[in-house]
Amino acid sequence: MAIDSVVVRQRVEDLDAAVPFYEKLTGSTAARFAFAGVTLASVGPFLLFAGPDEAVQRVAGVAATLAVPDLKVAVEEAEAGGAVTVMPIQPTPNGHRAVLRHPHGGVYEYVGP
């Protein structure tokens, strides 16, 4: 399995106020979208998110997002190594995702085609 990139997740209280700081920090323009009741902004290696507590808890429980070239293979290899699928592969606005708990306790979102 190869990991192409890692996206750091950061909850913010005010997405509109936070985005300019991260755009300046990274030199990237934010791509904004909504998912499962949460508003998000992808800025360079950061995924900023805001929303009501009950919706944000679904996003906040994941330590980071791991982009992989083949999601199905990555999930199979992680499971073979002892990871447990928390959420199976499903479509999202930006491709597909799965959430896995690694054998040592960390919870990660895997994304890919």
Total helical elements: 3
Structural class: alpha+beta
* Poorly predicted ranges: none
- Dominant shape: globular
| Major sheet size, sense and barrel closure | 8 strands, mixed
Topology pattern, helix = H, strand = E: EHEEEHEHEEE
Query: Overall mean pLDDT score?
Result: 94
Number of strands: 8
- Calculate the terminal CA-CA distance, rounded to whole Å: 14 Å
Helix content: 25-40%
Query: What percent strand?
Result: 35-45%
Sheet with the most strands: spatial strand order: 2-3-4-1-5-8-7-6
The radius of gyration is 14 Å
Describe this structure in words.
The protein is an alpha+beta fold and 113 residues long. The protein has helices at 15-26, 53-60, 71-80; strands spanning 5-11, 31-35, 38-43, 46-50, 64-67, 84-92, 95-101, 107-112. It has an eight-stranded mixed beta sheet with strand order 2-3-4-1-5-8-7-6. Strand 2 and strand 3 form a beta hairpin. The longest helix has 12 residues, at 15-26. The chain starts with a strand and ends with a strand.
Short structural description:
The protein has 113 residues and is an alpha+beta fold.
Task: Please describe the topology of this protein.
Elements: E1 5-11, H1 15-26, E2 31-35, E3 38-43, E4 46-50, H2 53-60, E5 64-67, H3 71-80, E6 84-92, E7 95-101, E8 107-112
Parallel strand pairs: 1-4, 5-8
Antiparallel strand pairs: 1-5, 2-3, 3-4, 6-7, 7-8
Quick tags:
eight-stranded mixed β-sheet, 27% helix, alpha+beta, 113 residues
